[in-house]
Amino acid sequence: MSLFWRYFVIFSLLGNQINADDLEPEYAEAREGSDAELPCNLQPVHPPDKVNFVAWNKGNDDLVLYKYDLRGVRGQHWADPSVSDRYFFRLLDEERALLTVSLTRLSDEAIYHCRVDFNRSPTRYTHVNLTVVGEYLTAGNFLLFITDNCISIF
């Protein structure tokens, strides 16, 4: 069962209110080798409220790739060692944030999940479908697709 459905079932059983906006995915696209920006909704269901913690994971994997903890005096960033130099989280304002994935690879393509925990409001989720587009070249009647130092001819 996917992580999304696990959360849905858990919150349904616990009686927590799931915001309909949390079920609709966002979409992001990047060319291979460029930066991708994945949005995260920080709006509490019951304002005014404060964000405590933001965590990102990829696909059906429960492994947290990146987290931002705001419970202390200053926000603390943490990234899994496998992505630490390519992922960075930044707050745009009190309601929006972005996870930037630098130097995207085709293997980065997936659905990412942003989990936001608040002081009082229910947890909020943003699901982002990232599409990574490889390099295309045309040569006469052929289309060349270049990925990870391999060339495919169509």
Automatic annotation (TrEMBL):
InterPro entries linked: Ig-like_dom (IPR007110), Ig-like_dom_sf (IPR036179), Ig-like_fold (IPR013783), Ig_sub (IPR003599), Ig_V-set (IPR013106)
Keyword field: Signal
Coiled-coil region: none
UniProt entry tagged with the keyword Transmembrane: no
Pfam families, per database record: V-set
Domain Ig-like positions: 29-131
Name used for this protein in its record: Ig-like domain-containing protein
Taxonomy of the source species: Eukaryota, Metazoa, Ecdysozoa, Arthropoda, Hexapoda
